[in-house]
Amino acid sequence: MKIIRAEHLGMCFGVKDAIALARETAKHRPLTVLGDLVHNESVLADLRAQGIRLVQQAADVRTRTMMVTAHGASDRTIGQARDRGLNVLEATCPLVQVAHRSLTRLVREGFHPVIIGKRDHVEVRGLTGDLDAFDVVLGEEDVATLCGRRRFGIIAQTTQPIDRVRQLVRLVRERFPQSEVRFIDTVCQPTKQRQHAAVELAQKCDVVVVIGGAHSNNTQELVKTCARFCGRVYHVQTAAGLREEWFDPADTVGVTAGTSTPDEVITEVERAIFDLAHRGAGIPLETIGGSIQN
Ligand code: SF4
Questions:
Q1: 123 is catalytic
Q2: Residue of 47, 37, 41 whose CA lies nearest to 17
Q3: pLDDT digits (tens, 9 = 90+) for 140-165
Q4: Which of 90, 109, 123, 268 is catalytic?
Q5: What is Dmax (Cα atoms) for the chain?
Q6: Which sign does the torsion angle of CA 159, 164, 170, 172 carry?
Q7: How many whole angstroms from 31 Cα to the centroid of ligand 1?
Q8: Which ligand 1 atom lies nearest to the CA of residue 14?
Q9: Which strand (E) or helix (H) includes residue 154?
Q10: Does residue 210's CB lie within 6 angstroms of at least one atom of ligand 1?
């Protein structure tokens, strides 16, 4: 068996920095994190063990300090928390801030804002939270329901696949040929790199295992991308989710992971895949560069 890692995979700098800030802050004062800091249960359990509280609603914050995750929040949400006397710590990823600034600029210049993304995702809620009028689109059917506007200003949730984003922008332009459509590409570089690497990986593997949280948007997108190029794609959160029948010792197995997946979970899954495929065969594990082979 050959196990190959995608060239780009796993936790991005935005999530790593947010976790580091939460850990460091919690050493000095009680901390509550608003929203999903990371879509990974083992990391969340570790944070809870350090006394960090995790809540979904600002109304549930009982500590003096509240942290906003890498996904960001609207000015309204942050302002309301400050009005309640909370000390707000912002771990918003700089690339999410780019999306906020791009949207603000489009609205200021008179464009009707359209966000390509998931309506109920925390990042999209943060982006739209200060807007009076906006549209969120994720598929062709959503573009079909848009009302005509003189000017459309489009941005994307940072973790959307860039191919789909470009296709939806094209559809808006086709549907409203008389309108001015301005698109600012706010898909983040780590997402683009992981998507691109996933395509390359899926094209050369018999099986692809995607590691990441069940609710992680970018993990779900990696699964969809790999499934376009490989017939055997499996999504697991940890090594415990793997099944022996998925693998054959002769397979080339690709491994990729969403931006919430810690390095140690990736290594654990790789070793478990190898063990499952060679159960009872007594074949020693040899690691060569970024890949594991026998
Ligand atoms: S996925 Fe992209 S935008 Fe989101 S935290 Fe990571 S680097 Fe930042």
A1: yes
A2: 37
A3: 999 999 999 999 999 999 999 999 99
A4: 123
A5: 68
A6: negative
A7: 22
A8: 5
A9: strand 151-156
A10: no
